[in-house]
Amino acid sequence: MLLAINENLLTNAPARYADVGPPAARLHYRIVEPADYHLKISSSNWAERGETQYQFTFHAAVPRTNAWTATPRGTVFLLHGYGLAEFSMVPWAWCLAQEGWRCVLVDLRGHGESTGKTIYYGFKESQDMSQLLDKLTKQGHVATPVAVIGESYGAALALRWKTMDPRVGNMVAITPYVVLSNAVLNICEDYAPFLPNVFIRAGLRQLPTVLGVPSAELDTATVLTRHPVTALFITGAEDDVIPPADVRKLFANALPGSQMIVVPGATHETLPYQFSELTPTVLAWLESNGTVGR
Fold it and tell me: How far apart are CA 116 and CA 106, in angstroms?
């Protein structure tokens, strides 16, 4: 899959940094203000070596003021997937900013330009996010209500963050994993089938000890069973990494008022960029009542 954006447009959202921890880390983030970015989205697909390939192109322009520039509808934190960085969520920032939302793009701990030697799969990162929200609130950069959109690893983190921070309101979980080990095994099967499963499973068994947390605490299912929340769950019908059946398990344990949509033909990689299918539902969810509901 190819994702093409003009990163020069991010000069209007300069890099910022926030110290978080423990363990100590420095988060890299940007604030994208509401404006008219003239966002245009195009996509194409073709067959190559028996598999469908996708390309998504996002065209934006130097922003112009719009009706929401001085009075944002709220603030949306955008959380990327594992091994990615803020750039993967930039199209969502432009899309939502045009609709009046102030957006915060974050390089999560150990990703992109953020520091942090160890990734805790949400166990520590949820605290990082609350500390970042504290800092932005003190600086006057947070317009309420606060919402969050996460993708894959970022979706699992977003759900965990919502359970522990009452300031987090409406949230969108795009293909969150249910059991971490299952997601890792599926990813390896897709991208590194040459790696013996026995080695991967051995590493997964050691992970809780390395991180110093009970193994079940790394699973989104454990977190939401203990503290269910309201959320919009989104899954792709052709997702082999986190199948729709897995996401349905989280949805089944969510609080009343939650929603779930399945996007036909979408894979794990392409789902976040199916804007024509996702944008109306996501915007309606963000604008719905109960933004600060648990």
Answer: 14
pLDDT digits (tens, 9 = 90+) for 239-266: 999 999 999 999 999 999 999 999 999 9
Length of the chain: 294
**CATH assignment of 14-35+66-286?**
3.40.50.1820
The three-state (H, E, C) secondary structure of 101-158, written as one string:
EEEEEEECCCCCCCCCCCCCCCCCHHHHHHHHHHHHHHCCCCCCCEEEEEECHHHHHH
Q: How many CA atoms lie within 13 A of 124 on its CB side?
A: 18
Q: 178 near 250, Cβ under 8 Å?
A: yes
Q: What pLDDT digit, counting tens, does each position of 206-237 carry?
A: 999 999 999 999 999 999 999 999 999 999 99
Residue 232, judged by CB atoms within 10 A of its CB (0-12, 13-18, 19+), counts as buried
What lies within 8 Å, CB to CB, of 153 at 6+ separation is 80, 81, 82, 108, 121, 122, 177
Answer whether 219's CB lies under 8 Å from 179's CB: yes
Q: Tell me, what's the pLDDT at 197?
A: 80
What tokens appear for 171 in the block? 């949230």
Global pTM?
A: 0.92
The sign of the dihedral angle between the CA atoms of 210, 81, 265, 189 is negative
**Domain locations in the chain as residue ranges:** 14-35+66-286
